[in-house]
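Hi R.,

Quick one: here's the Aminotransferase class I and II sequence you asked about.
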Amino acid sequence: MTLPLRTATRYVTPLREGGSMPAVVEADDDGLYVLKFRGAGQGPKALVAELICGGLAKALDLPMPDLALMELDADLARTEGDPEIQDLIKASAGLNLAMDYLPGAVNFDPVAEQPDADLASRIVWFDAFISNVDRTARNTNLLMWHRRLYLIDHGAALYFHHGWDGDASGAGKPFPLIRDHVLLRWASRVAEVDAELVSRLSDDVIARIVSEIPDAWLQGPDTFGDPATQRAAYVTYLTQRVARREAFVQEAMRARA
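And here's the predicted structure, written out as tokens:
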């Protein structure tokens, strides 16, 4: 995974459904993107989680909009009348994260839609792996676009890294909150998909994904060491979580049972 670098040229509209108030923006390639702001309430750690989890999802061949790094100029705030949006743009000047905008996509409805067992199992496995607290019936973070399911919004995953000192000893912990996963009822093949998913997550693949985290997102009061030290800690945690995955796999199977 090598993320393209884009520059935001126009702020189009806010997406107020999200707590961090992402926005649709136009970029220098004339494409539309959903921009996640570094200056939002969750801070750059949310962007780190988005980048890592998005890269892992792509490595696992899970359906997800393409990601890009996005340069944002504080001057874009001058054309916005909303002071909250102005402040958000100014606080996020520099490098942010964006994903392709899917025009016409609708939120996944677990009553109207029934994903197949294989895809549901893969997504449940993935969310248990990344400790994603945000794929519930109340907040599915799933879209339907051209009759296909898409994963979005992973800023709340990897929650262990808030206030983290780099300790990877918790990598083998189960993820009990998987019991609330919106797709759990259809995830009957978690054990069967496990080996194939793990085969896609080699140490080299994980290291390449983590290497793309910009230095600017690894600085500030909620960090430890220099950016290289932090990247190494993420790689250690994720590779150990793969190696010690039995706990979260078994937890998911028990939750469904």
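Residues 52 and 210 are 6 Å apart (CA to CA).

Cheers,
M.
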